[in-house]
Write a structure and sequence with these properties.
Number of helices: 9
Helix content: 25-40%
Strand order of the largest sheet: 1-2-4-3-6
Shape: elongated
Distance between the termini: 16 Å
Strand content: 15-25%
Mean pLDDT: 78
Radius of gyration: 23 Å
Number of strands: 9
Largest sheet: 5 strands, mixed, barrel
Amino acid sequence: MRKIIVHSFILGLVFQLLDIHDALEIKSLNVWPMPESVDYGVGSLYLSTEFELKTEGSKYVDGYGILKDGFLRLIDLVKGLHVIESQVSNSHSPSLLHGINVVIFSPNDELQYGVNESYKLSIPANGERVYASLEAQTIYGALHGLQTFSQFCYFNFTSRMVEILQVPLTITDKPRFFYRGLLIVKLLGQMVPKLVSELRFRVIAFAFVIPFLALHMHLVHLGLPPRTLDSRLDTSRHYQSLPMIKKVIDSMAYAKLNVLHWHIVDTQSFPLEIPSYPKMWEGSYSISERYTMADAAEIVRQVTYPSYFYAQRRGINVLSEIDVPGHARSWGTGYPSLWPSTDCKEPLDVSNEFTFKVIDGILSGRPHFLIEAFASD
């Protein structure tokens, strides 16, 4: 076990050093994660107060508004920190950026492992009516491009406008890893927002995995006491509210992560409603620390568009985990016959036919929005 932790720690440091080395080659470029290819200048533009989205030449029809929502989130992000006092709009000033034209080559918006997430972002320095250009193979590459665009926008306290720096700018980018996942984290008190904010800029350095020891040291570097991070990061051991989980999803989108590993149940608690076995969630910490089916759907699904997931609209898959037959003590709170005995409460009693009926009922009958479940131990 000690060797695994040390190797994971070393792996995390290697990835950090690689990213630092790449960053040093592109001085003064404040974008995260660092794109694959960047060419930029020293000019600047101002964001028009009527900054618009265009899709001329795109094959993606955006029938469910995924691109439109992404664009609106971009506007909220770059304009939401301060009041824009200047009223300069779509004049013919060469210093204004009037909008962004997004061209998506694939009409398909299915989110799968290995989906093409590449994009090319171009922002010219001048012209009669200047528009940024964003090209992507899929809608999910386009969403990443919009996030990158937002990182070049700053509020200018002299002009009282949003300024786009380092133009002309051309970025070609794609992820180095198809799977960029995160377990839901639990911290104490007001430290949750601070870590979520830091995740936006730093978690990619660990690339494919986040070794616990390396993350532990990173928290110490941030000034967070080590006791604020648990050895396993999940809502089964530490209940999280729906707004908090959504904040994690939003922060993942900022950092271009694409898999939220939701560890729902474990030994300590069973907070999820199972309609076919209504006593299962008696294993929750308390009656108020539970997820109804509607709650779970809300986490990953946008209610306005019932056929699309909340997380998917941000390019994020939700991987749900239900552990069996080990790590299942909480199952027997509502159904004691699942325990081998009152003195031995885990693993589940595999000599009892009822145990397999419950497992089959939960795994085969789980809601469609819980994309994946898998056994462990």
